[in-house]
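Summarise this fold before class:
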Amino acid sequence: MTDTATGPLPASVLEALGRYDTPTICNAMEIVAPERRLIGYTTKQLVCPFPDLPPIVGYARTVAIRSVLKNSLPAEEQSKRRIDYYEYVGTGHGPRISVIQDIDGPDVGYGAFWGEVQSNVHKALGCLGVITDGSIRDIPQWAPGFQALAGSIGPSHAWVHAESFGGEVRVAGMTVKSDDLVHADLHGAIVIPLDIAAKLPEAAELCGRRETPILEIARSPDFSLEKLKAALKRSAEIH
């Protein structure tokens, strides 16, 4: 069972954002919040084993993991920490996206936190997918429809464990806090400030309208440089 609280944004806003791919949301962000042009999104390549899945939009559940060092807590405390972690993941604003930073430094990705078990458990807990700079495994047995963006794919989980959760993490250049709104697809992910989220669908439509005259002439058998110049001028006049 999961406890999904009513989110700070109407479900209709999240649904509208999910109609666009992440690059389009980035384009829309440049219009609505140009001051964020260099921040708030992944800047390093992540592996996406399921590129055909649609974009996901949800509230972040943040975790820091490590796998090179063995968990030093007593077994009883480890068990309690694991339950506490699942309670954190399975409660709060929904839908949720797990955002996990691997803090093993030069050994990042040494052990996979994610595989058949965790993908299915997190899906049952109300998560739509995971964004991590760590490694994942068990791709054929992965929970159906559960998206994944990862730093690498590997075979072993080594000593992997959740070191902390609920704090600020940084994954592939993107800084995320618990409950941040995140949009992701095969291209990467971006944090969407709650106060501008509802403005992005309209801005995304504007981006599409501006691109249309350029794409039409670029794809036309009658393409010419003069026609491209005219299309660029028409594009710039669309508001």
Q: What stands out?
A: The mean pLDDT is 95. The chain has six helices and 14 strands.
